[in-house]
Amino acid sequence: MEENKDKPTRRGKGESETKSVSSETNDEVQLEERTADSKCDPVNDSLDTQLSGKNDKSTEGEDETISASTACSHRVMAEFTLVLTGDPNSIEIGSENFLLHHDEQTNVKQFSNKLYDLCGRQICVINMLGLPNVDKIPLNQAVHAFILLIPNGQHSSHYRSGIEWLERTFGKECLSYVMTVLTHKSDEKCESALADLKANHCFVEERYHTCRRSMMNVNEIIDILEKIDVMVSENNPQCHNLLMIEVNEDQKTQDHTPHKEETITKEKMETGSEIKLKCDPPKEHGDAEHSKKNEDGTAEHPETKPGHCESKKKTGTCEMDLSGNKQSKILTEEHKKEKLPEETEILLCRLHLQDSYQQKMSPADFLKIGPPVKQSNETCEKDLAQTFCQMSMMLDYRARYIPARQDGSEVSQPEVLPESDSIDTDDDDAFWANTEDSNQSKQAHVHPMDVQMAAFHCSDSFLKQNMITKLSQCQYALPLLVPDPVSMDIECPLWTFRKITKTWKKTQGDLKTVTMKSMPVCKAETPLVSFFRLGSLSLSKSQLMNTLINDRHSTFFHRNCPGSTKSRHLMDGVAEIAWYCPAGKPTDSFTDCVAFCNLHGDSLLIEKQREILTEKSSVIVLLLPTLKKSEKSYTVVSSLLNATKPLICLITDSDCGAIQAKPGKYKLGLKDRSQSDVSEELKQIIGKILSGPHTTFQLESLGISGIRVDENDSVCQKGKSAAMEIVKMIEGMDISKIKEKFLSCEGQLWHNWCRINKELYHLKGNIEKEKEQKKKQLMEIRQKQCDASCSELMKSFTKSLLNLPSKDKEYFLKWTQILIDGLSTDDLSSILQNYDETWSKVLDLKRKHDKSAELKEKQAELEHLSKKLQSATFGLEHIFREMGQIYEAHKSQKKQTGSRHTDWVKYPELAADVMISGYPMELMDGDAGHVPLTWISSLLQEVIKKLGDQRVFVLSVLGVQSSGKSTMLNAMFGLQFAVSAGRCTKGAYMQLLKLSEEIKNDYMFDYVLVVDTEGLHALELAGNTCLHHDNELATFVVGVGNMTLINIFGENPADMQDVLQIVVQAIMRMKKVKLSPSCVFVHQNVTDVAAVEKNMDGKRRLQEKLDKMAQLAAEEEVCDVECFSDVIAFDVQKDVKYFAQLWEGSPPMAPPNPSYSESVQELKNIILSKASNSTGILLSHFSSKIQDLWNALMNEHFVFSFKNTQEIAAYRRLEVQYSNWTWTLRSEMLKIENQLHLRIVKGQLDKIENSHLSKEMNKTYEELKKQMVFYFEDDRDKEILVQWQGQFENKIKEFHEEHIREVKRKLDEVIQQKNARKKLDNKKTEFENKLLQKSKELAHQLKDVVENEEELKEQFDSVWSYWVAELTSDIIPIKDINLEEDQFNVLEELGTEWNLIMKSREEGKYKELSEVGNYFGYITLMKYSRVGKALDFVQEKTRLKVSLLTHDDQEEIRFFINNVEQESLKAIQTKPVATQGYTSTYLQEVAKNVQKKVTEFESERKYIFKKEFTVNLLLYVFDRATSWLLQSHKTYKENNDALTYLNSKKNEYYIVFKSYCKGSSSAVVFGEMMCERLKVSAVEAVIDQTAVDLAGEMRCSLPAFNGNRLNLEKHVLTSLAEKEDFSKYKTYIQNPKKQVEAFIKEEAKKYIFTKQKEKEPKILKKNVDDINKLIKQALFEATDKVKKQEGNIDMWVKVFSSSLNNKLTLDTIFCQNFRDINNFDFLKEKLEKGLKTVTTEMSRLPLDKVMECRQTPDQILIDQLCNCCWERCPFCAAVCTNTLKDHSPDKHNVPFHRPSGVSGFHTKDTVDLVIDFCTTLVGSDRNFYPNRDSKKLVPYKQYPTAGDPLASWRITADESKLTYWKWFVCHFQKELEDSHNLKFQGKGEIPNEWKRYSKEEAIESLDEMCKQ
User: Which residues pair with 1138 in a beta bridge?
Assistant: First the structure.
């Protein structure tokens, strides 16, 4: 603080520092007097420029320096105040910086003269860069904009931390004043930063700007200011007020000087209101009554300590002006109206609740996971309220007894006792001296009840309700009448009691009949016993009351409780109430429920509360110091004595026994009496009074007592009235009838739907027909649900959810829950009572071994009561369940029904809002035992829309029924899962919990999703049903959670063993499907939990049991497991937690055991510790996981049927990336191959090494490896992808190496061909010289003779043939081959009849030999040939098609044909046809080999092939080899036939001849020859590159080619359906690869020649231009070099050729005929001219010419797309769609399974084609033989146990959504039957439902399957 330097103030011990502020001169520091409104006016905003003290000396705390251009003697008007926050490194501070030219961090405003000079506006800038400590910011500012500076590159993290700091420092309101400025270096690009920020944060683009770090650019700064202008105009108010407290060195010193005080002068402001400085509380309660007056009339207050009284916007606390001087804040009207008493405000300051009184705390503040509640000895005062709330939420009744320390003290230091100043070792006077005031300076602790009431007053109504509910569970008294801290009006917080239900057992009559009652406490009519204290007593009234209710627990807080102090501020006038609930035992204090009310304080002074309670009470108990007429209490006692109400007077100065002075009037002396004696007598008196006629009390009756009731607030009433609309509909109805009438969708209809849906996985017989019938039934049920979905109750409920404001909606939901629970409680109580009585009678009869009809009758009655008990439960969850069913029903119909009920689309959004607000949502319907997948998926999708796809850690719980799972979760996280009697959790519920900001950074997820589940061993289930249900539930719960709490109750080994076996088996299943859950065992209700030795023994036994269970489960799951730790990471020392019993004593009056709460807290810490290593799971992945788990569970064999959707989706995306990676390598290798091919042709390369190819590819390959690493490490699914990283890296490596080997092989062939034509190459020189000479001679002869070109051409043609004949006279020409004749001769040589050969050729059946549907016509039975003939005869006469070949036999023959074809082609392709020519011997070798294979095949069969088959097979093989042989022979002929070579040169020499005729010079002729040769070479290079480019273009542009293998398959099937050509389908079914290749060729042709005809010319032109540039550059280099070195034509040709850079070949030109050329510029000019013509011709190349490239675009795509897996499903022959060729260990899979009959499967010994889908079969109860020799049947559900090939396939059961193949079977039924010579009949009859599908639906179903 500043001191007046003219009059320094002397300080002394105990004295306060004073400061005089004079108002007589303007030279003194002025106090800010503007209201908040005036501060926020940007035009009239007057900057409080605190001019330094002008009393001859400048003050130290001068506010700001005014620039020279704006200096003036009066105040300067500021248009804007800007605060710079963020990273200091994001700005370069310098003299030219417009925003900041100095690096000092000033906490006051500074005028910016640079901004003034720039725009003529007064703008103040506050530098707060670096996010300074909150305590060091002395501000009382009106700020128009916070400029958050973030550096480019680190923008996301800096934005998040900056926003968090602003919100934490100045409150959430300041965020609307933030302008984000991303700064960058001059050379940096920051285009992607905005997208990043928008993707990861809630970000407003209009409030974002980019700027260079130097901030010297005028335009950038003006743009920022303009955006700020817009922001200010949009904000209301237009500025934000900052209020902080300075913590300077002086104050820090004062904090450690407890006796120093600070006096602040009170100022009278212009408003005339007096401003007080709020500070720390006084040392003792009495000190706060009046503050002493100083001599100058100012009030003296205790010293302000940091942390006790943080000044905020809405409290009248101390503030600082701009120079750091203390000043007071003017209170607004709102503040004046709600001005708290000073001592209350001080209390709230000490508890850090000063903000919360205005802005109430809500359940959301505690419904989050924060730091663990400290278990230290003492808690800091400021944390007391928070700790109290947290501990009470955890059901720890010690929340009232939190030991506290004042904020100035140290935790670890023991309190030092004060010493007297006058201690003398020889003088004992000091010991006897009066030390009453020696420790007055020590401030009293906050009273525990003040903490409770402060938290109560600072909570909103919902948090109050939660708090009171928890206090009730802790068996504490609850506030019934509460004075308002400001107005002192009395309020009854009736709302807070609404969720409390009390259960007790009433004993009545002489027979002591016990009746159980359970009801909401608000509705309970009970006697009320009220206790009043009149005057001051030494006896504790509250302590006496506790002995009446529970002598082991302090229901009412009393003076002897831990932490009690003399001073309390908020309890006087508070009336607390508690209920005594008897247990129906002889030891009960009272036979019925009794309410006790305790009015705190002296009732003489609290008249209103006393009168209210007097009116409502059944019995009044007065505690008086004495009973005399002269006492003040006389009037009160007298009036009560004359009233009709029973009265008991307890007199402290009397020792008389209990006396009844008059009827109902008792008095009892307390003097010299023990409290227990008094208590017993009091119980007897009260019991006696209550046994007679008495009035009763009901909480709801307080609403008409003339006091304020919280429920009367309008917002609460709106919610209640909306809820009452619903309740009025169902009031008085039986609960089961309510569900039947109003919630019909979730009743029998839903249960029937679930039953039928489960039956889909247990089909037998004609399964496809059954399935269609059941699906039809399911749709009919859904339609009925749609028709029944308009109940008045649901319309009213959803209308309220849709239309009510958020606060009203919250009340509406609470009221609905409360009122519905109230209705069902009565029914539950009576049913439970009857159940208990009936069960007791059954047990009695069983003990008597009575097997009479009575026992059966009682057992039937018990069963009926059990069902009634289940149907009697009715709550909010059932209404939401109904919403879910309405939604599922309507969505399944894919249209809104004709009814008016059309809001169903919004239901998931409504439920998501409710879930986010803190309500649990049903995950599994416990009544139906089913997960509504469509509803849950849509609900979670809406949650994702609202919160983003957040990471969640899923915590689930599993254990036996009624073992306290829900209670444990409620205590752990402050949740409110239903735990009341008779309301055991059914199914599973999920609730979202957010991580608090304090711990968020320590975890890799944002939320915890808690899943509470029903118990195992449910009583209502029995036998196998129970076991199956438990296994199903355990598997689901363990699978869905990242961690599962295994809750074991009690110490019964048998129960534990059952649970453990189920759990271990569930965990083992998760491991087998690659899910990795973790678990913690919680052993509840263990006696002597603190005994370490016993715990160790318990853990050892648990470990043994787990190991044993693991071995048992391993046998069932077929696993090799020795111990539990082989299944899951488990440490018995750390992963087992022992819990004491929940209750401390016997319910219903027992409080929760504090040890239980401690154990819960420890368990929570263990969970969070383990969770810190987990990344959790994305909400979207969680949604998929639920679907996968449940679908797998529907099929009994979980492991075989589990399908991890998220994993599949991630794998498919990885396949797409793999395709991209391989294409990158392939396209680069194609370029390298083309270049090397040219070099080989040019003779520059005669050998290729793998190392050379690797070196060429190295750069691309290394870059690709980096891309792969980046993908696996940065993808959002990296945790899933990591399992395949090694596999795919190896696959890319193998692809790379294999591709190098393949290219080397192809280039080696080119080298061989090059070597083979050396003979011709050697003759080329001779040919060229002679042809050139002959052309020249002929031209000279005809030069002046022939005039027109036609005649010239005739003359040239006439001599050309002569020239060629002359040149090749000694060379034998290579003839064309006649393969058809050679094939005929080979077949004849093998002994085949001529007629048979001709017949086979003419019919052409051999061409489709591998696609024949039935090969029965090709075989002859060996042993049963007569039977075969008979069959032929029968078939011929009856036309009945019969086949003795099984499907396996058919497929064996087909496989044999394909195998023979492949081997034969491989053998032929090894022959050197391209280099040495063709010979018919090659065909003879192949034919003999085929014949040998046929013989070998027949030797192992019971049949032989007819000759027709062998002939067709040979013709089939020859046909497949024909194209290769012809192409190879053509290559051989082109490379080696002189005649062919010479004819190819005819046009070139005609041009030479023509030029000579025209008299052209050698240079012209040479140029024309060169252009002709360049043209040939350039065309080849251009079309080769164009082919590669076109392939790449198609791969990017065509949807069929730019995905993975599955995507290609989908487009192939779509194309087949669109064409409806069965022959192509047939090819696809029998030889899918062939059809896929045909599809690629067709699509490529369509793209190039039709669809994208304009694309090819563009690509062609680009490549032509590239070649043109290359040639021009080569021309320039050759000409330039020859001119400089004076070279000749030989040198020019050499340089030119080498300059073509291996991209063009150039046939050698022999220069001896052109040695006369010496004008190379002329040559260059002629060549460039000719080149233009060549370029033009190339640009116009027809598409057909382009397709003559070495590797066509379609072939390149085939090589890329078909290098994948082609394995086929053993059941239906559908082809695997994995993109990798060898993808082991991943199993084969395909979503497009089909009916087996499509491939020819038929029922054994019949002609009935099989109609079943294998995906249906594996979910049915049918069996199969693995092969024809098998004798053992295998269940389809366990198909992998049949071994390979089935074991290598993953076939998951589905709902056969494959409409595609159903349509195909119906559409091509006749064609299929004809193809296979079989029928769709009998068991294979096509279901009628299939015939309804259209082609459009079929194609659409392919998309649906690809998404799965």
Answer: 1083
